[in-house]
Design brief:
72% of the residues lie in helices and 0% in strands. It contains 13 helices and no strands. The longest helix has 24 residues. The protein is globular.
């Protein structure tokens, strides 16, 4: 059984995910500007709808963590089983969000273990949960694990086992941009670009290889080095990067999922680093 607290955590995580979807202009990723085109409007609506399908699974993960009380192999196995069921539900609702489910699921579970913890401690607890092997996971290698092995990229599992360093960097970028006077949209875009600038996105590696990944990382650094999206030069660099990625059809989806994790932690009372 899930409690009110479990439901609140799940809803906060989904709100973070849909908040990420609402950002614009988002380089290479679906955003509200696409709503004028029928196909992209359907894609964006589908992503928003399927994001809501994560809510029961995330609430169940929070409940599992509260019941277990501490990071253990049993908790890791339960989270894996819930995650696979949730993936199926999300697929029926339109698909997407696999990376976000992995990140948000671990962060929600870690928060449920200690609701008063700060963001860094939540990430550390998530790392402890992710350190255990999921004995119920399919034995065949996933696409992400295959790409990770091929290129030596950390991938989603490595990100979690390192304590979500890109989530923490995104939180730092949010804080810095806000202090500098950026709007909330600009601060969140700077956080997204901070993730893109260094993340070894296995989806991008699969689709476009190492050269393509480095091209995306360089584009993100160009915006940040120009002063971020709140500056004229940074905004122009962002528009150029966005046009380039949309023309190429490249989508850095891994960065979007980790930004959702950062926005989830950012929205928790007392969670800032």
């Amino acid at each position: 059984m899930t409690s009110h607290e479990d439901e609140v955590l799940a809803q906060a995580a989904v709100a973070a995910l849909t908040g990420q979807l609402a950002l614009t202009p988002k380089p290479g990723l679906p955003d509200p500007r696409d709503l004028d085109a029928r196909s992209t409007r359907q894609e964006h609506d589908s992503l928003r709808w399927s994001a809501r399908a994560l809510t029961p699974g995330l609430a169940a993960m929070a409940a599992s963590a509260r019941r277990t009380g501490t990071p253990t192999p049993v908790l890791r196995a339960e989270l894996g089983a819930i995650g696979r069921c949730t993936e199926h539900s999300v697929a029926l609702a339109g698909g997407g969000h696999k990376g976000a489910l992995w990140a948000l699921g671990l962060l929600v579970a870690a928060t449920a273990l200690d609701p008063r913890a700060k963001a860094r401690d939540i990430a550390s607890t998530a790392r402890r949960i992710a350190a255990f092997n999921d004995k119920g996971a399919p034995r065949r290698p996933s696409r992400g694990s295959t790409i990770s092995a091929k290129y030596g990229a950390a991938g989603a599992r490595g990100e979690a086992r390192a304590g979500f360093p890109h989530v923490r960097r995104a939180l730092e970028a949010l804080t810095a941009a806000r202090k500098a006077g950026a709007t909330e949209n600009q601060a969140r875009l700077d956080a997204l670009l901070t993730v893109m600038s260094t993340l070894q996105d296995t989806e991008l590696l699969y689709e476009v290889g190492p050269m393509g990944l480095r091209h995306v990382q360089a584009g993100a650094r160009c915006v940040l080095e120009a002063g971020g999206t709140a500056t004229t030069a940074g905004a122009e660099a962002l528009v150029a990067m966005d046009a380039d990625l949309h023309e190429r059809g490249w989508s850095p989806r891994g960065s979007a999922g980790l930004l959702a994790g950062a926005l989830f932690l950012d929205g928790l009372t007392g969670a800032p680093l």
